[in-house]
Amino acid sequence: MPILEKLTSSFLQLRSDQADASRVAAQPLERKEGTGVFPFEMEHLVVAKETTAGRLCGAQGCTSGWMKPWKSRRRPVFEQEWGCSTRCLTEMVSAAVLREMGEGTETLAEEPHRHRVPLGLVLLAQGWITQPQLQSALAAQRSSGEGRIGDWLAKGCGLPEDRIARGLGVQWNCPVLSLQGFSPRQMALAMPKRFLAEFGLVPVRVAASTILYMAFQEKLKPSVALGIEQMCRLKVESGLLTETQLESARTRLMAADSVPVRIRSMGDADEMTRAIVKLLEHRQPVMTRFVRVEQYYWLRLWMEDAAVPPPGGLQITTEDTEDHVFLMD
């Protein structure tokens, strides 16, 4: 039966191509030698070469999606895979939810504690304060029982903010950033505004289409950086701003338009899975990403191709894009 053999051969070839695409997307954060692009960007190149008609159902247990020629294979898409039915979408989403919860995989370890030189000693070593000034600030801090040493030095001896920021940069071994090139209109689209206050961070700018510079108030956690990297497909490099600059940037970001977001509490993984499947079937996205950022589970939906950010770039519009953030009770 040549027709059946031809169909079977085509199915097996498409499954092989799909597996190759999945392996590309799973590569670590390294540039592909000789290509000048990250695997983040390879994802777009692979999807662009795949025809809609040839797309297979992404559920590993599906045995029928490839035999439904009357179905649109363009949407709904979950993590770059088409789902042919509610059952298949549920299988795909459930696997992603369990992945982000860390079940069956090792969770990202926090950066090990390192003994760092106290900020006061860093500033003293740089010659920016004197020993009596440091002793006076430490005494005021002990007497008050609160406050950072940098704040007490600023009050007691008029130490400029930029010196404090530079001292913190030496202490944490990270750069001191500037707001040159900062665009609130663009950066406000990078993530839900709730993250700005929750994690004390501000996205500053994109450099060389590969790096997202992120300023933080205290210290950006590795798990937060990883979640943002996975969503934005850009390597996060963290640095510092002065307190005045940080508050100014955050105020401007909060006033700018951002991607519409809905935040909901979920009772368990099954409830979250059902909620996401319902969204996919109702909104019919052409592209989605799902990541965990600390206690938040962040789902971004793109309903039309024109809304999808280009490789090496951030979100460029609020249209046809939605954020859904889930919290576990």
Please identify which CATH superfamily of the domain at 184-255 we are dealing with. Answer: Type II secretion system, protein E, N-terminal domain
Strand content: 15-25%
Q: What would you report as the Rg, rounded to the nearest angstrom?
A: 24 Å
| Shape by Cα distribution | elongated
Percent of residues in helices comes to 40-55%
Examine the secondary-structure arrangement and name the CATH architecture of the domain at 184-255. Answer: 2-Layer Sandwich
Q: Tell me, rounded to a whole number, the average pLDDT.
A: 83
Assigned CATH class of the domain at 184-255:
Alpha Beta
Low-confidence stretches: 21-50, 104-109
Strand order of the largest sheet: 6-9-8-7
Compute the separation of the termini in Å.
56 Å
Total helical segments: 12
Q: What's the CATH topology label of the domain at 184-255?
A: GMP Synthetase, Chain A, domain 3
> How is the biggest beta sheet arranged?
4 strands, mixed
Structure summary, number of beta strands? 9
- Element string (H = helix, E = strand): HHEEHHHHHHHEEHEHEHEEE
Which structural class matches the secondary elements?
A: alpha/beta
